[in-house]
Amino acid sequence: MQLDQRDLEILRILSREGRITKAALAERVGLTPTPCWERLAKLEKAGLIEGYGARINLKKLAPHVTVFVAVEISGHTAAGFQAFEAAIQRYDEVAQCWALGGGFDYLLQVVTRDIDAYQQLIDAMLEARIGLSRYYTYVVTKPVKGGQMPPLDVLLKGR
Fold it and tell me: Of 27, 106, 142, 158, most Cβ neighbours within 10 A?
């Protein structure tokens, strides 16, 4: 899909201001509402916009702990990776999971009530035999930067 400068500007604005009204978005990109909405629909249909959501301040909502877990799996085969990736989908406490190249196989971001709940989760994963062979726990002590969208201006420089 070819994107022009207006499409890119729509993406930039939405990445920072997801609740902007369609009318305000149209005004910001210099279009009338109907052509802007058509572009927005085209970007959504193409899968460039995956969804809209709110960033929840968990600290104000409930006590919790965020843990990053570097994981090594036992079966370094396509089937082993696929089985782990399918199994990890069942654990709601795993907020995000990334496959890595290099030392560890996966990096998990886990959010639980407390460290005891985190350990219960890990014990359940080990008992479920999902391929988890080693894990390294890194407890988040405070957020320093987060919640931002990727730097679209930097990624798209020169386009």
Answer: 106
